[in-house]
Structure formats: structure tokens, C-alpha cells
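Follow-up to my earlier ticket, as requested here are the two runs.
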Amino acid sequence: MLKMLSFKLLLVAVALCFFEGDAKSGERNEGSLARRRRCLNGNPPRRLKRRDRRVMSQLEAPSGGESVCGGLYPRLSCCSRTDSQGWLHVETKIFSVINNTECVKLLEEIQCAHCSPHAQNLFHSPERGEATEREIALPLLCKDYCKEFYYTCRGHIPGFLLTTVDEFCFYYARKDGGLCFPDFPRKQVRGPASNYLDQMEEYDKVEELSRKHKHNCFCLQEVVSGLRQPIGALHSGDGSLRLFILEKEGYVKIFTPEGEIVKEPFLDIHKLVQSGIKGGDEERLLSLAFHPNYKKNGKVVNTRKNPHQVDMRTAREMDGLSDFTGSVLRLEVDTDMCNVPYSIPRSNPHFNSTNQPPEVFAHGLHNPGRCAVDRHPTDVNINLTILCSDSNGKNRSSARILQIIKGKDYESEPSLLEFKPFSNGPLVGGFVYRGCQSERLYGSYVFGDRNGNFLTLQQSPVTKQWQEKPLCLGSSGSCRGFFSGHILGFGEDELGEVYILSSSKSMTQPHNGKLYKIFDPKRPLVPEECRITIQPAQTLTSECSRLCRNGYCTPTGKCCCNQGWEGDFCRIAKCEPVCRHGGVCVRPNKCLCKKGYLGPQCEQVDRNIRRVTRAGILDQIIDMTSYLLDLTSYIV
């Protein structure tokens, strides 16, 4: 009995020690929390006197209303009446360009985090590094508050909030459930509650709309990385399903159906174009076009030995003397003429005009960008829809999408769509989606602006009117990937799938360009009905491509001779004056002389050679054999 009693007393003593230790630990935690209260300058917060609270409540905020910070931190604060005016106007430049009142109010409220007793922890958390000079200094936000700030201010702050909500809150929201802003008592259990965000019904509506919207989003698949300012991607139409990626520096690379980049570039003209890494200029390599019958005639001309490279010897330069500024041109590239690279279609609106160049199909554009030709004809006459992006001449800050029609003057012609791009980003023209994988996107014109905002235009089959819709791209959570950087261009492959070319915002890393492919996450990446047989890339086998060695082939198969050559397939060299004394012209103005003669036209007798009047038959055979061997070496 005594043993049992002593054991119970021991348990009571241990329990008392435990509760006492826990109480002391709580006191230590509370004390450590107080010790962790630090302002941005490292000093502890100060208690505001009644006079300080009255002065701060009367301060005017940048939007014109009263300062809210005095009400959020009425007792303990890191702000005083001497420094409050300074931090209230830190983002004056941003406030001046924002026309969204709710966003301004949110920014005013977030600036109050400078007054928080925990300002040092909110702004200098070990969860993230220091903000760069170009970023807005934000405290660690609570997750629900972060989402509300994103949806309210997205698109209203120039150069900011260009990512998805998940990416933005991954960096700016608290992930461990610790201290976050707002760090003052909330009015509701869930959601952001403050002077401006206590309407939870509206907040729930935004979240519900966002959830519904995500179900209809498309995804992006990163296909290629490590590119240098990619500005275009196109196919050759030869059945090989190769994608030709244009880099502004002057290279064209081939992306194969097997997912590899061919080591040697298809085209290399980097020495002919200007160098540099500026992303916004309009110089250097900008575009490339393949002949519709490229598989047979090789225009853009490729080599006879390698179908993955262009033969630069066949390059011909356009005259460049005509003024085609602000125009859409229409050319006939199937021509037999050797002296001009193209002819003028007789149906061009200015075919016989003396006022306009005959190449002009439509004019009146101001700063046209990419033009897309829908591969599907609009009617039985095989008329094609042509859509071009252009700046608005009357309002330089806005842009427009034009549907190009023969002979129209777009100085006065109404545009298909006119709008002001998000965040002052220039418009980037795209393509009409005619692929197989994303059925919901079929027939939509996909385009965007340089800052990463995507849009679509869809034509109603009944009214024929075009309707603008935002193109929703899923976040990293739903798509296992996301878009980042600036839009440099769009691309289209042989199957009609649309691609996006981007470059990082940082210009210090030149090889940061990427190629993305748009796909519908509701369908397989390559549905069974979308599979086709890939035809391997082949060398040219036409008679002209095999035999025309000293010239170039026209799209119709005629061999046009280079200067100094003539005859069938340009095999006969021309020498002017002609070769004398039995000499043979083996190169333009290059004679191969018989033994005993020399000079440019073999007009001189070689006096150093003893001439035998009665040479033997064997010596003559040897001389003739040597001459024929030399002649054969030139011909071969």
C-alpha cells in the first residue's frame, strides 16, 4: 500500500513538473515572439501615442483617400509621423499609371506592411531571396490574400504580374503557414478580410469562375530550349514533318519528328545580317518561305547531297528598289524567266497601274507584323483568309487585326479587331489553328502580345463576324508546365498545330529562347486519328537538279546559266576572245592550251620547248594523252 501511494505521489510530482515546464516554455515562446518583432531597419517597433495615431489617420494616401495604416496597427507600429509620408509615396509612379481603383487600394494596404511590428520577417523571409531592383517590394502574403491581389491587379501594373496565379503566389505567398500579411486580426475565418476585401461573396465568385475557367484551359508543352531569339517556325510541306526554326541572329535550325535538332543549320546567314542581342529591333533574319512545291523543286533551294541544308550558291537577291512600305504583296513564283525571280499575277489589282507597284495586293497598313494565310479556302473559288497584325496609325498605343482583301486601302478601311494590348506590349501575329489534336481550337486565329497575353479570334459560321476571346493556358499544377518570358513569334507545323516562340525577360543570357506547342489536355497528346506516315526527307531527283551544275533551276525545271556558261544544262564554258591553236575553254575565260602554246587564249608559242619537226608516232600519242587527261580533269 505504501509502495502504491509513493508511486502515485511520484506521478503527481512528474505531472506538476511537466505543467510547470510547459508554462515556462509558453512564456519563453511568447517572449521570443516579442523579441522577433523588428522593423525593416532592425529596430523594435514603438508604441504609438494618441497624438501619433491621430496624425497618421489624417494622412492622405496616393489615391486621394485617408491612410489606412493607422487603423491596421493602432498600438504597436514601425511607422511614425515623421517617416509615414515617405513610404506612402514609394510607388507614386505606379499609382499614376493604374486606372483600377481596387488595385490602388490593395497596393495602399500592402504598403502598410512597412508599419507592421513584424516588418522585418514579412519582407526578409528566408523562404525567398532579396527582390531585385525592378520588382515591386511585396511582403509575404497570405495565400487567399495573394490570389485576390493577383486577380485584382493582373494586367494593370506595367511589366508586372505576367505569370500565372500559381507562379506568382509560389514566390510571394507564405508556404509554411507562418506569419504573413495581413498580420492584423481578420474579420472572417477564411479569405482576406480588411478595409477593402471583406466581401467574401464576391471573392467566392471570382474563385468559382476561376475554377470553371481552368477546366477549359489549354496547355503548353516545352518542345525545344536553348534557342537564341527564335522568331518563327514553319514547315516545308514535303511530308517529312520537319519544323524549321528561325533564329533572329541568322540561323535556321531543323527540328525533326523524333524530337531532335539537326546539328548543322539548314541556313546560316549570320555573317550577312547585323549582330547583337536586342530583342525589340526589326533587323536581321525575320522570315522565311518555302515554295508550295518545295518537295520537287527545292525552293528554298537545298543541296543535291543533303536535304537538311540550303545551297547558298543558288541565292539570288531581289532588287530592293521598289517602295512596298505598308503593303501586302502577291507574287507569282512559278516562272521560267531567268532574269527575274518572279512575275506579276495578272489578277493583281494594280497589274497595269502606273501609280502603285504591280506587286501590291493591298495597301494602307502602318506597321504590319506577321500575316497568316488560312490553309482552308473560304469558298469554292479557293479564296483564302489572310489575317495581319498592324499598329493603328491614328492611335499609336493601340493595335489592330486586319482581314486582307484584294485592292483595299486600310488607311480608311475598318479593322477586324481594334484593341489596346495588355501592359503596352506590341502585338504579335499568329496562325489560324487547323490541327487535329485540339479540336476546341479548330478554326481559331491564335495571337498575343509580347508580354505573354494570349487571345483568339473565332469567326461565327452564321453571322461571319469575328469574336475575340482570351486563350486560357493552364498553370503548372494542371499542365505540368507553364509559359514564361516574352512572346517573339508563333509557328505552324505540317499538321496545322500551332507553336509559340519565347525568350526570357533577361537579355544577359542569349540562349534562353524556347519553343512551346499548344495542346488540349482533355485529349491524348497524339490522338490515333491524328497519326500520319512520315516521309523521309529526300534529295532532289529531277533532271534539272542532277544536271544543272553551273546554274540554278527555276521552279518549273529550267536550268538558268550563271555568267560565263551556256548550252544545255550550262555545261559549256564561254571564253572571250576564243581560244586559239586548238585550245579548249574549260572555265569562263580560262583556256586549256595544247603543249607548246601558252597565254590567256593560247596565242603564244612556248619557245622553251624544242620543236621536233619529225616527231615519232609514240611521242605524239603521249602528248595527246597528257592533253586529254588535263582536259578531262577540268570537265570533271
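Run two:
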Amino acid sequence: MRILVTGAAGFIGRMVVDALAARNTLLLNGQERRISAILAADIAEGPLADMAGVHRRVHALPGALSSPDTLVRIIEDAPDLVIHLAAVVSGEAEADFDLGMAVNLQSTIDLVNACRAMARPPVFVFSSSVAVFSCTANDTISEDTLPAPRSSYGTQKLIGELLVQDATRKGFILGRSLRFPTISVRPGAPNKAASGFASGIIREPLAGQEALLPVGRDLRLHLASPTRALEYILVASGLEQGALGGDTVITLPGISVSVGTMLDTLRHLAGDEVAERVKPAPDAATLAIVSSWPGEITTPRARALGFVPDADFTALVLQHMSQRAPTRPLDPIKQDRS
């Protein structure tokens, strides 16, 4: 089978491409399939060339996802699996409405239309976010809670979910939209996500740098590790369409952790000197976005489908510490998610 990964130069995108390139087969819609080629698409050409140079089955597709040349190439390639990760992050989408609409919404519309032109509907994994939800006081909600986003990013992702649902109903794709938790701890350079501090307050102190904390210690976050995010994508690809029962949206499990617990964990694992590198720097704009997100989400349906969360925040920090190494800064626009 052939696989398309959009946003392939982003952090999660690179992980997905590397993981797929290391495998011979993948479970797709309930059937084990041999991987013949991986088409890595992104506007950042350099990282794509690097991946294609390392992995013989990876082919680079540089350029804007909505460009006619890119869409023609995708239609001609006719992938069996589309993993749509390309996105502008939450803070960037809030600051630049047109950019968010172009990348987070229009590219999804164009990609679904490209799938319509294919002889067979591909499995279509759409990367959404818990930012589609809103609540008062950072409350606990369930996966059945009706979405009501309070950010441009969350709104764009919700529209994408509805499009994937309808395109699946029409038989254009075999869709599954994944509402990702906030990913922590991300390596590399900071991005413009409103939740970027969830990685920064761990990553930067461990690297000997000061980190600014824009929110209070009581704020809770629904978190998953980078490794877990990768596993979620692979599990979603393998699900039989019938197992979704007509509902293509999956709110993914995470661990509920307060910022205070995150800082206490850092202090316990790395010591006082490292923990003291986190400096309070209240930011009203950031707080307005992230405090509208749920602090905890119960996800019995997702768990029944085979999605398993991380053990605890200690495991997330230890994972980052074990994998930490100097990395080339990433394009901020390509470091996806909430």
C-alpha cells in the first residue's frame, strides 16, 4: 500500500514517517498490508529531502498542500492511507486568521476533494484537537460533551471533523478524526502553540535555559507523550471502519495534570536548580485560550477501541530525558497541535 503523510516535516510528522519507514507492514482498516511507498508532503523542502535520502521508500512532495501541482501528484499517487497532520498551531491561528483558515481548513477541504477523485476511498486519519471543547473553570468533561470551541484553531479543527464525517458518509474516504491531547514533552525549539509552555517548562530547564510560565499552578492539562501520539495514529489507521459505528470522531485518552504537579515532578526528577529556571510570566492571551480547554476528559469509547494513555507525568518527563539530544530547530508552523 501507499501512504501519504501531510505535515511530514513537523515533529509528529517526522516521527510518523520514520516509524512507517521502519516497518514492512501496517494494519489498515482491519487488514495487515505491506507498505510499498510513503509520500511525505510539507511546505518545508529541506527536511523532506533528508527523509527521502535516509529511507528508500520515502518520496518527498514539497510545496503548499492546496497547490494544484501538489493535489495532482496526490491524486496520481492514489494513497491507500492519508495521515493529515499539516496544521498551523493554536497561537498562530489566533494571531493570523487568514493563515489558520488556509492551512487548517482549506487544505483539508482540498485534500478531501483530492480523495474524491481516487478510484478507491483511502483511510483518512485527520489530526484534530481537544481545543474543539470549551468549559468553565478548566473543568472535567466526557468525550460525549458537545464541542464549543473558543479559539480560531479549535473552530477550524471542528469544521474539519464535520467535513471528514460527511465525506465518510458519502463514501469519499474512510475517515477517523483524532482529538489529540496537548503533547508534552516536545523536543526542539519552542512553537507558537498556546499550550507550548506545557513542553517549555520541562524542556528548557533541562537544557539549562530559563522558561516562562504564562499560567498559574492550578491550571490542569489533558496530556499525552509524543510516543503515545504516534501510537494513537497507528492504532487509528488499523481500526475497521465498522468499529466506529458511524461516528468518525475519537477523543483520545490523556492524563490530567496540573501545572503545579508538572513543576513538582521536574523538581523531583532534576533537582531544585533546574526547577528554579521556570519563571512566572502571566500572559492574559494565553490564559484565555488554555483555561477554556478541559482539564480532564473521560474517554471510555476511545479506550474500548484500543487507545491507551500514558501512565503518569513522571513517565512523560523520563521519556524526554532519555531521548533528549541537540536537534535542529523546526519550522514553527510545522510543529503541529494544540
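The only thing I checked on run two: The chain is about 40% helix and 20% strand. Let me know what else you need.
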